[in-house]
Amino acid sequence: MMDLKERDLEKELQFQASRSGGAGGQNVNKVATKVELKFDVQNSERLSDEEKALVQEKLASRINSDGFLQVVCQTERSQLRNKELCLERFYELLRQALTKQKKRKATKPSSASVRRRLENKKKQAEKKASRGYRGSF
């Protein structure tokens, strides 16, 4: 995460503030506290082509038709705090998108776990079988 912050991505970010809904009383009606962060993934000079492709693929649901990655924050009552939260979320999203997942190693279940599973299935079957009414008609 420090690697991303050291790249100085903040120069490529666009912030837009507007009035938000929710709690805040009269403050909500007067002050623009909602912050929207936009980041143009394709035209970024600070990300490599490989990183851009990863971000495009993994964060496709957050990228709009114009190619901007959007993060919106309106939970706090101050614009400054919402901006800080947007930045934290943005860096966290990028970090998650750029970390490579470990490949899963296929393993067999242990014989004890198989035995426990079958015993539990048998107990459950007996419990359900005992619920029925077996009278003679």
TrEMBL record:
Q: What class of enzyme is it?
A: hydrolase
Q: Which GO terms describe its molecular function?
A: peptidyl-tRNA hydrolase activity
**Where would I find the Prokaryotic-type class I peptide chain release factors domain in this sequence?**
19-35
InterPro entries, alphabetized: Pep_chain_release_fac_I (IPR000352), Pep_chain_release_fac_I_sf (IPR045853)
> What EC number is given for this enzyme?
3.1.1.29
PROSITE patterns, per database record: RF_PROK_I
Specify the superkingdom.
Bacteria
* Start and end residues of each stretch annotated as Disordered: 101-137
Q: Which SUPFAM superfamilies match?
A: Release factor (SSF75620)
Q: Provide this UniProt record's keywords sorted from A to Z.
A: Hydrolase
- Matching PANTHER family, A to Z? PEPTIDYL-TRNA HYDROLASE ARFB (PTHR47814:SF1)
Q: Which family does it belong to?
A: Belongs to the prokaryotic/mitochondrial release factor family.
Quote the protein name from its UniProt record: Alternative ribosome rescue aminoacyl-tRNA hydrolase ArfB
Report which gene this protein is encoded by. Answer: arfB
